[in-house]
Amino acid sequence: MEQSIKMVLMKQTLAHQQQLMASQRNQVQRLQALALMCRVYVGSISFELKEDTIRQAFLPFGPIKSINMSWDPITQKHKGFAFVEYDIPEAAQLSLEQMNGVMLGGRNIKVVGRPSNMPQAQSVIDEITEEAKLYNRIYVASIHPDLTEEDIKSVFEAFGPIKYCKLQQGSAPHRHKGYGFIEYDTKQASNEAISSMNLFDLGGQYLRVGRAITPPNALHSKTPAPATSHMPTAAAVAAAAATAKIQAMDAVATNAAGVLSKLGAPGLLPTPAGGIIPPPGIAIPQQIRAPVPILPGLPTMMGAGQQPGAVAQAQEAIRRAQEAAQAKQQEELQKKLMEEAEPITLQAQENMSIKGQSARHLVMQKLMRKVESRVVILRNMVGPEDVDETLQEEIQDECGKYGQVEKVVIYNEKQSDDEASEVIVKIFVLFSKMQEAEYARDALNGRFFAGRMVRAELYDQALFDHNDFSG
């Protein structure tokens, strides 16, 4: 019976640990999805603009964590696009809604959210946004530093009763970070506040108001700490004993039924004196061949002949070993999850850390690294008058000789805003592998098509993923 109780306890502990690991995996995925929601991609940036101009244009929507502009080491200029990462997802969503197509430095910039090549995070993001719809919360940014929560509440309560109004506090006392959240009793009140107060001049600053896309305290949730079990030790032992008893009774009943069915045939076994059939014996193993690992949350039981002091010392040593093993297990789990998923910070994606004596070698390696792209751009292949319904199919058939073609995009680019301006046709071909794209580039570059010499080269993968064909 004691061995059965131990086995039940082990199964319960394993099931609890699996639930804990699944919960932590979901929590890490949720945090990574929130980090992804904080980013926006800004394309079609004039080469004359610097990072300060981008920061100044996007700062009214909320505090910016980082701006990463990809630089070309040959031209010493940026490549015409940047990644802006905010502290909160609402700021990124508001900038996406209000900055896309805005004229900046003589060009209409393009602002988009998550790249199309990250479908694994979409389900988690949809779950977060659906959860946010349960609350009538709005996001308010670009708040004057001298205004208080009471000032903001007095202005916004004209649209309906307010449950709470909270401004995000800064590091300095009695100073906020310029943004906050307001929750109304009704959805109608929140919608009216957004439509009426967005771009409202309050204290010399234009407010930026939008709907909250995350539930309350979404960014403040922590990864659950390792826990053994919420069930007391005595209760766990009692539950395991009851389960083992039921399992033993089931086994006895099953074996008895089998023996009785055999005894029903005459002459098989002699009947003992008195006509009493003894119950079948149950073989309980006295020892387990392989040592059973001690798992977190497994209660320890005192054996016969053990001294209380020695047992207490042994239990303390086991507890410390359990905590160390648990911490190491959680660390390995989170490390594995972080390696499999997208890096959370843009700096981790874009920058290369250079230390030690190999710094010069790493710098040269960074400058000379191969451009990893599966996209080939074909220039000067056709004119606007040559674009018809069959062109895309012809290009796909031709490029299919060099690999598997996943997508063909024909883009007509006007050189200016004038109606009579020249139109250049760019053709983008997305292959399934980078080697296929390189093979197609080498084969098509310099070839003649309908009297035109085609110029083929690899196109920036990030630009293509964000549907930016201006490069």
UniProtKB/TrEMBL annotation:
Coiled-coil segments, which residues? 311-341
Return one GO MF term.
Answer: RNA binding
Q: Which SUPFAM superfamilies match?
A: RNA-binding domain, RBD
State the source organism's domain of life: Eukaryota
Q: Which GO terms describe its cellular component?
A: catalytic step 2 spliceosome; precatalytic spliceosome
Q: Where in the cell is it found?
A: Nucleus
UniProt name for this protein: Poly(U)-binding-splicing factor half pint
Q: What is the organism field in this record?
A: Cacopsylla melanoneura
Q: What is the lineage of its organism?
A: Eukaryota, Metazoa, Ecdysozoa, Arthropoda, Hexapoda
